[in-house]
């Protein structure tokens, strides 16, 4: 959800050429993972119509070279931030989404918790992106 919400925010600012990548570091992360049905349903509610096969995530443990290419790395949790740092993020800043917004705390994975939790997660991601977009753009250089 963060990926497509960020793309929409960047496009609204005329920055649709900024590349956004989504990657996972959890044990269940796999190349080609598709967005869940619950994520697609709650994104549709805010005008983002994501086809089942329109988006796929990457297993970052299998592709650490993506970290070297990144201008900035944003994670959802502090634990993910630590894993990314251990994988060798290089000089890129690593922040949680809440840190990007100038706050503390994690945004947990809503997987398996139903539409209401996905909806709350979507709204929190969007709020933090709105609050942190200027910082993100400044950090990416």
Strand content: 5-15%
CATH class: Alpha Beta
Architecture (CATH level 2) name:
3-Layer(aba) Sandwich
Q: What structural class do the secondary elements suggest?
A: mainly alpha
What is the string of SSEs from the N terminus onward?
HEEHEHEHEHH
The name CATH uses for the topology is Rossmann fold
Which strand order do you get reading across the main beta sheet?
Answer: 1-3-2
Identify the CATH homologous superfamily. Response regulator
Tell me, rounded to a whole number, the average pLDDT.
Answer: 84
Folded structure, characterized:
This protein is mainly alpha-helical. The protein has one domain (2-140): Response regulator (Rossmann fold, 3-Layer(aba) Sandwich), CATH 3.40.50. The protein has helices at residues 2-12, 37-44, 65-69, 78-87, 97-100, 115-140, and strands at 23-24, 33-34, 56-59, 73-75, 94-96. The strands form 2 sheets. Strands 1-3-2 form a 3-stranded mixed beta sheet, with no helix packed on it. A two-stranded parallel sheet has the order 4-5. Strand 4 (73-75), helix 4 (78-87) and strand 5 (94-96) form a beta-alpha-beta unit. Helix 1 (2-12) crosses helix 6 (115-140) and helix 2 (37-44) crosses helix 6 (115-140). The model has no long low-confidence stretch (mean pLDDT 84).
Short description:
The chain has 141 residues and is mainly alpha-helical.
Question: Which keywords apply here?
Answer:
5 strands; 141 residues; Rossmann fold; two-stranded parallel ribbon; single chain; mainly alpha; 10% strand
